[in-house]
Write a structure and sequence with these properties.
This protein is 38% helix and 19% strand. With 402 residues, the protein is an alpha/beta fold. Strand 10 and strand 11 form a beta hairpin. The radius of gyration is 25 Å and the shape is elongated. Helix 1 (48-66) runs parallel beside helix 3, helix 7 (226-242) packs across helix 8 and helix 11 (320-337) packs across helix 12. The longest helix is centred in the first third of the chain and has 19 residues, at 48-66. The strands form two sheets. Strands 8-7-9-6-10-11 form a six-stranded mixed sheet, sandwiched between helices.
């Protein structure tokens, strides 16, 4: 049975900096301290920091091989921990590919937590790294001393400690992981390195006749108007400047989004457009196709209730809480599939507002105070550790005048 959570202890070093270098990584069961796997290798001539990153990468790869869902990565390198958490910039260009590789591996897990530990608590990984450095230097191999963790007290089957552990496990099972919940993201005032983030360019589709007539347009497949097609072309040109090497274009399956996405994909060199049904507009039920004024007149009480709570749905329709659930699922899938890359997401006003609400850590009131124009662009960066940066909202400078 694959372990749900593993501890990765990683280290690396060189003799000379740069000099003969190697790394070591140890994987442990977090409850018992049992060693599950070891990794070490000589890497030729390199710096301490390169070796430390290589140790982290080897440990994450081993955790993935074990089938772990979550990882606690412990390193005695303050630099690697702070850079992977996005709190320190990666100024050395030689470390950036390694950080990007590590970030890609982080995306394979439900959550990864990075922790700095003192060197004397990282003795096992340090011993493996030293043996690897000996090999890199051509010295006789020294057996790595296995640093066992101190024995842990084991609670009796019905003890208060066991009961507390079961309660904590139940809470953890129902909580969102730190890798997906912006509310639990580590706080930082320092700019994060953008190349380790998954960047989402959130594009609302171009205008339709319903947009211009101020009608609810949910699941009804209303096409772009002539003005909307012109907006889509202008947006395509803007996206090609913002993200010329975008990894993917993902769209709601409704034609007003697909046509906007196809224009963007053509401007990016003919990339395929991939549908994601989680990005479709809210189902407005009986209100779909009706003007805002008509709905206010006929369903005044229902509209008041809908505006007051995201858990309330229009008659025969879908609540914003339900839209938020599938929008988060779409974002999580994109972050996992495209670590460190840029993705163009073409969707509708409701999913984009909800994604921005979550990214900003805002309340539901934000949904009624945030205005998104047709064909406007918003940009959000998502880091593997749950960090989020909203870089722009509703950019419309590229759009032709009405």
């Amino acid at each position: 049975m694959a372990p749900r959570v593993v501890v990765v202890e990683a280290d690396g070093g060189s003799r000379g900096n740069p000099g003969p270098a190697g790394y070591g990584a140890v994987l442990r069961d977090p409850g018992t301290g049992e060693v599950l796997a070891e990794r070490s290798a000589a890497i030729g001539t390199a710096t301490n920091n390169v070796a430390e990153y290589r140790g982290l990468i080897a440990g994450l790869e081993a955790a993935a091989e074990l089938g772990a869902a979550e990882v606690e990565a412990r390193l005695d390198s303050k630099l690697v921990v702070e850079q992977m958490c996005g709190r320190w910039q990666i100024k050395n260009p030689g470390l950036r590919p390694l950080a990007a590789q590590a970030a890609g591996l982080v995306g394979k897990f439900a959550a990864v937590r990075f922790t700095w530990i003192p060197r004397d608590r990282n003795r096992h990984a340090d011993a493996l790294a030293n043996a690897a450095m000996d090999a890199a230097a051509g010295a006789p191999a020294r057996p790595a001393k296995r640093a066992a963790e101190e024995p842990r007290p084991v609670a009796a089957a019905d003890s208060p400690a066991r009961a507390a552990a079961r309660e904590a496990a139940a809470r953890a099972a129902t909580a969102r992981t730190s890798g997906t919940d912006p509310a639990t993201a580590p706080a930082s005032w320092e700019p994060r390195p953008s190349f380790t983030a998954t960047r989402l360019l959130l594009v609302r589709h171009g205008a339709t006749e319903y947009t211009e007539q101020r009608r609810y347009s949910g699941r009804v497949d209303v096409p772009l108007s002539d003005h909307g097609r012109a907006q889509a072309e202008a947006t395509a040109g803007r996206v090609a400047v913002l993200a010329p090497s975008a990894a993917a274009v993902v769209s709601s399956p409704l034609s007003r989004c697909r046509d906007t996405a196809e224009a963007i994909a053509a401007a990016l060199g003919g990339k395929p457009v991939r549908d994601n049904h989680d990005l479709v507009e809210c189902d407005f039920g009986a209100w779909d196709g009706r003007t805002f004024a008509e709905v206010r007149e006929r369903w005044a009480g229902e509209m008041d209730a809908w505006l007051a709570a995201t858990t309330v749905a229009p008659p025969g329709g879908e609540s914003f809480a339900d839209v938020a659930t599938r929008s988060r699922r779409a974002v999580d899938e994109l972050r996992t599939a495209y670590p460190g890359e840029t993705v163009v997401v073409v969707s509708h006003v409701s999913p984009i507002k909800l994604i921005l609400r979550d990214a900003l850590g805002g309340g539901d009131t934000l949904l009624h105070r945030l205005f998104l124009d047709a064909a406007g662009i918003s940009v959000v960066d998502l880091w593997p550790d749950g960090g989020v940066a909203v870089r722009s909202v509703n950019d419309t400078a590229h759009l032709p005048s009405s």
